[in-house]
Amino acid sequence: MVFSSLLFLFRFLAIVLPLYFIVPNRMRNLVLFLASLVFYAWGEPVYVVLMLFSTVVDYTSGRMVARNLERGNRGKARIFVAVSMVVNLSLLGFFKYGDFIIENINAVFGTRIGAMNLGLPIGISFYTFQTMSYTVDVYRGDAKVQKNIISFGAYVALFPQLIAGPIVRFQTIAEQLNHRIHTMAQTSYGITRFMTGLGKKVLLANNIGLVWTEISAIAPENLSMLTAWIGIIAFSLQLYFDFSGYSDMAIGLGEIFGFHFLENFNYPYMSRSITEFWRRWHISLGTWFREYVYIPLGGNRKGKGRQICNIAVVWFLTGLWHGASWNFVIWGLYFCVLLILEKLFLLKVLERIPAVFGHIYTLFLVVVSWAIFSYNDMTDGAAYIKTMFGMGTGGLTDERGLYLLMSNAVLFVILIVAATNLPSKLISRVFAPETENPDRAAAVEAGTGVYGARKYQVVYTILQSVFIVGIFLWATAYLVDSSFNPFLYFRF
Amino acid sequence: MKKKILQTIPVVLFLTLIFTLAVWSHFKPDEAISELENRTLADMPEFTWASLMDGSFGSAYETYLSDQFVMRGMWISLKSSVEAALGKQDIKDVYLADNDYLIRRYTDADFDAETVDKNITELCKFVNNTTLELGEDHVKVVMIPTAAAVLTDYLPAHATQFDEAAVIARLKDGMAFDNLIDTTDTLKAHSGEYIYFKNDHHWTALGAYYGYAQWADSCGITPMALSDFQKETVTEDFYGTNQSRIVYGRSPDSIDIYQAEGITYRLSYDRMLDQAKTVSDTLYARANLEKKDQYTVFLDGNHAIVDIETSVKNGKSLLVVKDSYAHAMLPFIVNHFEHVTVVDTRYYNLGVQSLGIEENYTDVLVIHNTAKFMLDATAFMLNV
């Protein structure tokens, strides 16, 4: 099931919301767990078993790790961490990369092993990473063991972030699994955040996606240069609004149910360097790789040479995580090279020149990267990039490009403004307080930050209400109308 | 305290919206068909364990939910209005053109190259073979362009459309004789007149008359003058397919019909279904003016096969193979024949050859809209 559907809004949520708040506190994790299983099983009735298997394995290994640590037996505890790693990575390897591996073996050795054609279990890249983080966190003492299997199941299957992240590390919500409070301020914030995400996904991402769909259907060498740029910029915007919209919905739903997930996007297209971009784009994935791969490998503590090697490993894996295809690996290594260059000298240069050059440099390289990202067939991807740089056969401009530009001009402007922090800055300037708040749990209890009172609270409430009702009706109109509701992050 | 009450308002609004629509859509009685969209709506899928496990129940239920959602038309209309306000020049591939025209936008991506190749081959083969039997003057193909190819002045700037002329050129190349009648230039010469509907993809009877006149000239028949017909406006409240697609229309169409004086007709529909055969004495099914799709006033809309006997006793007999663009044109053409058979390969599954062309007909006429021809999956029926 996806959030942006009539089914989710008018059936799932309409049943789960009242149920969750009616039952006593101690049963709420059970409601969340069962609801999450239904949510998952709706589209994947069989693969839900896989997720339950992963849950049981990590629940058990987590407890074994904790028990052995208590007894001072670190060596044995490590074995159970390894068990969790091996099981989860095998699941991921088999279901996500099985056919890719077979394909490459066939290509290298000339064998003819048949493809398995298994179909990717939804969200497997997200939940395997989450459950692994649990065992590691317990081993490292970053989180306490969860003895209640229902609560642990609720963490793994938690529908708000189940199928497209953010990747919530166990330590982030370990406390909240056992004790969480629900306040009106939190629900109110959660709803507003959810509607923001729904609007981003249904109204902005899907709409600009139509432009990319039309352009990507044409053989890339026949596009004009103008059309190629319009297409890839449309795709860049679609990707951001689709994914960050989904994260907003996840974070908002989390708040409604009393959880505080960490932010996943922070206006990435405003970055002045690629290094900064990756601190602002899909933050939870970057954090995961830093915490569980980069730092364990030694990070930057073992000399420059080793550090560059570590960066390369992380980015090879980051690329591969995005899909079982070589173009994703190339895409990851493309960023790897840029990040290393920035680390060596480029960052210092970028800091010294006027900000505008940094923005242009970053946007340009990121937009080009999406062309690598979007074509699994690398010949098409290369042809597309060639066309972008004037080496195609379609000329400089054509009627199609001009038409798509004119017809979507207003939409492009809206999207570009919405991708910056201008709107949110404006809101906090007028209505203060600052919307940024590092410790959400403390803020909820104190009723401060995003949960607190604002200047002109009446005006704020009116605007907030108009926003919620407006997005709600408008998004419903799109959902009723459209079978066009693609979801980009299902592949990961 | 005041802060708390204020923070409650958005929550209450959100929940009210969710529950109202949830409950309403649950209790709303299901509808079988949507007149607006001219299609049957999904029923509640039957629950079986097998369909649950393979996921088909889940997806069928979602289709059902969206098809049966409360006030479907209102939502779609809301979406189109907002998009128009945002300056979009087409909504779901319907151009918001000048003079309140809604014009369907077709791009290359809408067509499957293989189907197009096949259709061209099949049609050329049919025409070449038939011409050898009946003669060049007796076998004609009338190609009718889409509105976007004729009303180019009304389209938004830089509007792109697939290349219709290229398809017509390929048809011409494939035909050994001079059979093809391209009506594009004729219609363009009258582009200031009311030759296409504003809200529907079809041409009007007036547009069809110009097409008819060109056809008649090409086979050496003197076309009847417009003044030979009695014109009657049968509706001024017609919203057709393009309006249905986006539930957004700015002014309604009117439909004019033309009746030849002194000629009588006897129509029988769908002869291969013996019991279902219906008989009529008019080319215009006025009862259909009560329906959403009022274009079906012409020849009662799509039928597999229609036999028309006229009071013109000239011994000439015509076979028409067509799509729905022909319906507005046939009321002019039939007056030159004693017997006319109208076949639609999309519905008539016995094959055109089964009708015995050489034995039963003196003339053959194929009538197609370019885009519909390119999309047709049944062109092979011409040679079966």
Could you outline the blueprint of secondary structure elements for this entry?
The complex is a heterodimer of chains A (492) and B (384).
Chain A: H1 6-22, H2 28-41, H3 48-70, H4 74-109, H5 124-140, H6 149-157, H7 170-178, H8 184-216, H9 225-256, H10 274-280, H11 283-294, H12 304-321, H13 326-352, H14 355-374, H15 378-388, H16 399-407, H17 409-418, H18 422-431, H19 440-446, H20 457-481
Chain B: H1 2-27, E1 33-34, E2 39-40, H2 49-53, H3 56-67, H4 72-85, E3 90-91, E4 94-96, E5 102-104, H5 113-134, E6 139-144, H6 147-150, H7 164-174, E7 180-182, H8 184-189, H9 205-218, E8 229-238, H10 241-246, E9 253-260, E10 265-269, E11 278-280, E12 305-310, E13 317-322, H11 326-333, E14 339-343, H12 357-360, E15 363-369, H13 370-375
Parallel strand pairs in B: 6-7, 6-15, 13-14, 13-15
Antiparallel strand pairs in B: 1-2, 3-4, 4-5, 8-9, 10-11, 10-12, 12-14
Helix pairs in contact in B: 5-7, 9-11
Strand order of the largest sheet of chain B: 7-6-15-13-14-12-10-11
Range of helix content of chain B: 25-40%
Q: Tally of extended strands of chain A?
A: 0
Question: What structural class is derived from the secondary structure elements of chain B?
Answer: alpha/beta
What amount of the residues of chain B lies in strands?
A: 15-25%
- Segments of chain B where pLDDT lies below 50 for 5+ residues? none
Please give the radius of gyration of chain B in angstroms.
24 Å
Number of helices of chain B: 13
The portion of residues assigned to helices of chain A is: over 70%
Oligomer: heterodimer
Question: Please, how many helices of chain A?
Answer: 20
- What ranges of chain A have pLDDT less than 50 throughout 5 or more consecutive residues? 484-492
Order of helices and strands of chain A: HHHHHHHHHHHHHHHHHHHH
Note the overall shape of chain A: globular
SSE topology string of chain B? HEEHHHEEEHEHHEHHEHEEEEEHEHEH
Task: Domain count of chain A, please report it.
Answer: 2
